[in-house]
Specification:
5 helices; disordered N terminus; about 0% strand; about 130 residues; mainly alpha
Length: about 130
């Protein structure tokens, strides 16, 4: 399994942001379909403000969560879809989060854990890098 790269030059705020996002996604599923939830854009926006991240930094953090989920779960990265980059950065980040929600579910099933437990495994992995 490939180890996820460090998010940035060892910035703790970005790692904390990524941990918050993956835990947020694990809890958000209880509200219903994530793609139509207003909680998703509001939650991401609030976390971005809290940690002072722009859209590019947010997208990189979410992609690091993807790498950590793949690494922790043993899912085949070659067969896992790669989210497409679109010119509208806001839509790109939102689409990444919706994709990550699905990946979190697949990773949890592969690990035999709940979504929350899988999120905790990923947070620990992100923190160790």
């Amino acid at each position: 399994m490939a180890e996820p790269r460090a998010l940035f030059d060892n910035e703790p705020a970005t790692t904390q942001f990524a941990g918050d996002v993956v835990r947020f996604l694990a809890r958000l599923r209880d509200e219903g379909p994530i793609g139509v939830s207003l909680s998703l854009p509001f939650g991401l926006s609030a976390s971005m403000k809290r940690y002072g991240l722009d859209l590019d930094e947010t997208a990189r953090a979410v992609l690091s969560i993807r790498a950590a989920l793949l690494s922790a779960s043993g899912l085949d990265a070659a067969s896992e879809p790669v989210p497409l980059c679109v010119s509208d950065q806001v839509m790109f980040v939102l689409n990444l989060a919706v994709y990550l929600d699905g990946l979190l579910g697949r990773a949890a099933r592969a690990l035999g854990l709940s979504r929350g437990e899988a999120a905790d495994v990923v947070v620990e992995l992100l923190g160790s890098n």
